[in-house]
Structures are given as structure tokens and as C-alpha cells.
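Please think about what follows:
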Amino acid sequence: MVRINLLPAEILERRKYERWYPAVIVPGLVLLGIVVAVWGVLSFTASSRAHDLQTIEESTGKLQAQADSYRVFEVQEASLRQREQVASAAVAGRVNMGKLAEELAVILPEEVFIKTLSASETQGLLIDGCAPRGGGASMASSFKATAASLVRLNSLDSLYDVWLTTAEIGDYGGFQGLAEDVSATGVEVLNFSATAKIAIPSESSSASATAAGQ
């Protein structure tokens, strides 16, 4: 049987293209769905990353605040170190006069009596003493005791340039150093005076001494 299609040609041409519409629309919808899904995942990820970034910034702010509160101790430590350096520099050249007096008391001969003693870093050491002649001894013993005093003074590391400035023989007079000769006003005495310069310790030696003491 023969079929005769009486529809116009333009309608037949339109129906031929209408058969391709599903093949075009369906893939387009699928692609659109994929785009929407990808956009949703990216939006969620971006939101999550933004929240994490905000959390990190808040934590960083708290840590920075704590660090700022602790910085005052750092400033105080630096100030204390600076003060320590200033104090160390100030005492680096200081002479321990107590130690010097103790050394003098130990090294001077028993036959020598110190009447006056003065010491300063600028003026140095000044000793005014005497060496009385003991009972039955000659004046040579007094001179030997005086000479021994100068030698022992020169042996101290804290003293240098030791000089005997005066040495005069006098009588016992009012000197009360020897109890057995208190009434013997005729006993001779060698009055002498000596000077010495005091060695100022360097900063390095003071630091070494401080470290050794610790």
C-alpha cells in the first residue's frame, strides 16, 4: 500500500529536526547539573577554608597578645643586663682595700709596728711605722726588720713601686709597743715611712676573679 504525505515540505523539515531535540537537551541538562554540583562543592570548600582561616587568625591574635604580655619581661631582662654591665664596668677597677689591709697584716714582720696607714686608689699606700730595738739587740735588727717590710710589700701583686721615704733613729719615748721596756725611755726606735702605688685591677682580671669566686 502506498502512503501519500500531504503535509507541506517545511513542516516535514521541522519534524525531522525535532527528533534531535532530546539528544541536545539531555546532555545540556547533564552538563548543567555537573556545573552546579562542582560550584556547590567549591562554595562549600571555600566556606570551610574561610572558617579555618578565621579560626587561625583568632588563634594568632591570642598568641600575639600573650607574646606582647611576655615582652615586658624581655625588656626587663635587657635592662637588667645593661645595669649588670654598667655595674661590672664600675667595679672593674675597684681595689679591695679590706683584702689589702689583711695582706699587710699577714706579711709585715712581727718586729715592725705600724703607727698610721692610709691607702687610696689615687694617692697609693702610705705607711708610717717603727722598728724598736729589743732588749740586748742592736739597731741592725731594726734596719733588717724595716728592709724586710719593704721586700714583703714589694712581693704583693696589689702593690708596686715601693719606696722607703724616711728612716730616722729616735728614742723610745712614749712608744708602748714593748711591754717589758715601758719604763726604759732610752730604748732606740727606727721610725720609718714608706710609700707604694696600688695596682688597679683590669676588667678582665676582675671578671676572672668573680667567675672563680662563683
About this structure: The chain has five helices and four strands. Residues 8 and 26 are 29 Å apart (CA to CA). Residues 9-92 form one domain.
